[in-house]
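Contributing new records

If you add data, match the layout below exactly. Sequence lines come first and carry their own label; structure lines follow with theirs. Keep one chain per record. Anything else will be rejected by the validation script.
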Amino acid sequence: MTATVVESTIDVALWFMDQARREDDYLQPQKLQRLIYIAQGSYAATHHGRMLMPALFVAGETGPQDPNIFRLFEHGRPTNLGEPKIPAETLHFLDMIWRRYGHHSSDYLNQQIKHHDIYARALKKGLGEEIPFPAIVRFFTRKERPSVK
């Protein structure tokens, strides 16, 4: 596995939480999950399969989720984590994801992502089934972008 661009998925989650706060918006935990999933897949598709962050996605009831991020952020942004550490060249990418998907509701994102075949296959095996990163890369590369509009 090659090195990730961002050292921790926590930093990407913090960035999305802080971006929502800057826009005087509340970022629901489910929506956060969808954004980090989309960011991971979109980054891999546009950067030759490279991982944005060291995330592990599993099939949850409402869509793909990183269980560690879910647990950490289920009650909002932890106050003791400080500022996210995101490389400058990656900020533009995260901003693009936010501008493209941040205005959608978590329900809308959930509905769109439920139709991703890689999520459906994992869910068919059972809740908590891993969605392998190579499958995410193939799916997002094939689609060029998620089916979310």
